[in-house]
Structures are given as C-alpha cells and as structure tokens.
C-alpha cells in the first residue's frame, strides 16, 4: 500500500480518493515534509532532555498563529496525550474534577480521556465526573437558537455535577463537532457555552485535532470562528501530517499550578525530527495556500453533495448537506456532511444507506475504471459510529 497527495493505493494498485483521513493534513507523503523529516533524522533525533533550537523555533511559530494570551506550548506524541495533559492542567488550576463533553465526542484513548470519549461505545464507561451534553444540531435547531440551546445543555450538566458534589473543571469541545456529525454554524454560537463554564469556575478546552491548521478554510483554528479565547488548545498528529507530533497551547496563568505541583516529562514530545515535521507542515500550508484551497474545494464539494438530494439520489435518503458556513457567510470548507434520513419531515436518521448510496454512485459514474474504486469517507454521529 502507498499514499500520494489525496490518493491511497491498495495492494493491488486500486486507487481511492482519501476523504476520510484527518491526519494527513497536507496530503500523503508530501515531498517537503518527507525531506524535512529525512534531513533532520540524518543529523540528530533524541529525547527531549537534550535541548535544541528546533523546539523553540517551532513553538514560537505555532503560537504565532494563536491569540497572544496562549503563550506557552507543550508537546506530546498523540492527541490522546495532549487531551489527557490538558485535563490534568485544568484540574490542577481549578482544584475541581468535573468534565463536560458532547454526547458523541471523541477525545482520545488513554484511561482518563477514554472515559470522556462516549463515541468509543457502550463498553467504555464514562467517568464518574464526566457529563455529556447534546451537540448543537443545526439540522434540527434554528441558527439563531443554536448558541442558547447548547449553553443550556452545558448549564444542565454543571448543575448535575454540582448536585453530585462535583465542581466543574472544564468544558472540552471539538470546535467542529466532527464525531457528533459536523456542526459548525452559525459562527459565534460557542460563546454562550464558554461563558457558562467560566461562570461556574471551569475552563474551556478547544480540541483542535480535527478543525485546526486552516481546514475550515476561514480560520486557522476552529475556535477563532466563534470569537472565543480558550484556556487550553489541544492539537494532534495533523501537526506533523501523520508524524507523531501533538501538543497543547495554554495560558501561562492556567499552567502555573500544574508547573508548581506536577512533574511532567514526555520522552519524545518535541524531539528534533517531530519539530522539523511540524515546521514543514506550516511551510506547506502557507506556501501552497491551503486555506484558500479548502474554500475552493469546499464550494465544489458542497455543490456536488447538494445534487444528491432530494430528487437525484437513487435512495432518496440524503436529507441535507452541512458544510462549514452553510448559512450566511458562504460555503468554504472541506468539512462537510450529508445526512441520510428515513423521513425528511420528522428528520429521522438512516445510517445503513450511506455506504450503499456511495457504492452505487461510484459504480454508475466509473464502471470502466477499475483502478479508481471509490471514496474513503466516514459515517459519524448519533445514527452510527465511524464506518469509513
């Protein structure tokens, strides 16, 4: 198997358009990233007890894409580690335990953070100090009511935590709600929920593994679309286009208690090769104009997905397509979803037809080309977990 750009090739040479992979943020095997990794590996790669300028240069450049209040960076190898660390920092700062996440969130697989990742399924039990809230469903809630509805869920979760003698430490949100089904508009709707958690003494953690690095097209980080300032921003392997580089950015005052009270070390978080990979990814995003490209491809994707429903869809199941900026500000992003519905009037989901519709569409469009077998995509949200 191999990858190149937007394509994956299986062992038989069959080509697939990779619309599923959230890790290869600048495409598979980008030459600039590959060369940067190989060059640094030929000079030095060791653990982070040995100081090197690469980690300082990368931290300064990465933090330069964020508001100045987020002035400290810490590096890990995976998004799971980054979210786990973020929770430790939040609990040290607030001296509280409660964590609020969305109903189908995914934030990682460490023991602590898996307990705050309900999308992992019923056999991974939520932690005693974890509460879930409904995602801001733009399919069923009017745009002007989204912020109030989501904040109401957060306030209910805060009240339930307090009723059980648990003070809230943080609200952790993937700012495009990718595991919940991709909910992004209207811009700004997160602000009221962020106010709610802060009024209760908690922090706001923005999980940017999915939306970060300009992939929404109109902002480098998803939280910027909502005009909110997180206390902690977490990032995952897209930082290195698949190389194991992740980390977080944090306000210095929020980090202070953790720094005083906890000994933290990550053997390979911030190692020289990872830093070279991260710098190369930022190079590609800037030099190749990938934010503008996300807008162009997003408009095209939205237009083509719109053709699938209602009438042209052979299954008559595509109830609505949800791109970023669906209402009001344009169709800009490659984050998009097509909802497969049993009943458009009652808006009931029907997960099973998603794969069938894709396979039938592919067979009709390219019956003569066995080398292009189809599109790798995922099926997410309340009606079914990932079926990419």
Number of helices: 10
- Structural class comes to alpha/beta
Taking the alpha carbons of the first and last residues, their distance comes to 17 Å
What integer is the average pLDDT? 85
What Rg do the Cα atoms give?
21 Å
Physical arrangement of strands within the biggest beta sheet? 4-10-9-8-7-5-6
Number of strands: 14
What CATH first level of the domain at 31-287 would be assigned? Alpha Beta
Q: What is the level-2 CATH architecture name of the domain at 31-287?
A: 3-Layer(aba) Sandwich
Described by the principal axes of the CA atoms, the overall outline is globular
* Major sheet summary line: 7 strands, mixed
Helicity, as a percent range: 25-40%
Order of helices and strands: EEEHHEHEHEHEHEEEHHHEEEHE
Could you explain how this protein is built, in words?
This protein is an alpha/beta fold and 388 residues long. The protein has a domain at 31-287: Aspartate Aminotransferase, domain 2. The protein is 32% helix and 17% strand. The longest helix has 18 residues, at 146-163. The two termini are 17 Å apart.
């Amino acid at each position: 198997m191999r990858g190149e750009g937007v394509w994956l090739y299986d062992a038989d040479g069959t080509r697939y358009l990779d619309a599923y992979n959230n890790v290869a943020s600048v495409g598979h095997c980008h030459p600039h990233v590959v060369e940067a990794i190989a060059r640094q590996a030929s000079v030095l790669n060791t653990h982070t007890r040995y100081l090197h300028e690469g980690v300082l240069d990368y931290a300064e450049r990465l933090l330069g894409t964020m508001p100045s209040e987020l002035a400290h960076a810490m590096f890990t190898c995976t998004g799971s580690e980054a979210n786990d660390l973020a929770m430790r920092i939040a609990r040290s700062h607030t001296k509280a335990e409660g964590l609020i996440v969305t109903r189908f969130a995914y934030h990682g697989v460490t023991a602590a953070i898996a307990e705050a990742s309900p999308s992992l399924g019923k056999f991974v039990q939520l932690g005693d100090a974890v509460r879930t809230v409904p995602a801001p469903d733009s399919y069923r809630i009017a745009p002007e009511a989204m912020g109030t509805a989501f904040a109401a869920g957060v306030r209910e979760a805060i009240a339930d935590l307090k009723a059980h003698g648990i003070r809230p430490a943080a609200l952790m949100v993937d700012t495009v709600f990718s595991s919940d089904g991709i909910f992004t508009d209207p811009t700004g709707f997160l602000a009221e929920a962020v106010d709610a958690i802060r009024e209760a003494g908690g922090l706001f953690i923005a999980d940017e593994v999915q939306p970060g690095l300009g992939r929404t097209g109109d902002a480098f980080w998803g939280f910027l679309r909502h005009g909110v300032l997180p206390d902690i921003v977490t990032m995952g392997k897209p930082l290195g286009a698949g190389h194991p580089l992740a980390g977080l950015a944090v306000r210095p005052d929020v980090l202070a208690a953790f720094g005083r009270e906890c000994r933290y070390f990550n053997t390979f978080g911030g190692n020289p090769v990872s830093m070279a990979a991260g710098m190369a990814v930022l190079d590609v995003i800037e030099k190749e104009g990938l934010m503008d490209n996300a807008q162009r491809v997003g408009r095209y994707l939205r237009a083509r997905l719109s053709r699938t429903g209602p009438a042209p869809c052979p299954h008559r199941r595509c109830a609505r397509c949800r791109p970023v900026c669906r209402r009001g500000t344009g169709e800009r992003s490659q984050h998009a979803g097509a909802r497969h519905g049993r009943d458009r009037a009652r808006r009931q989901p029907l997960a099973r037809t998603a794969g069938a519709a894709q396979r039938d569409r592919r067979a009709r469009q390219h019956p003569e080309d066995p080398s292009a077998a189809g599109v790798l995509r995922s099926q997410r949200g309340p009606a079914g977990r990932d079926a990419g």
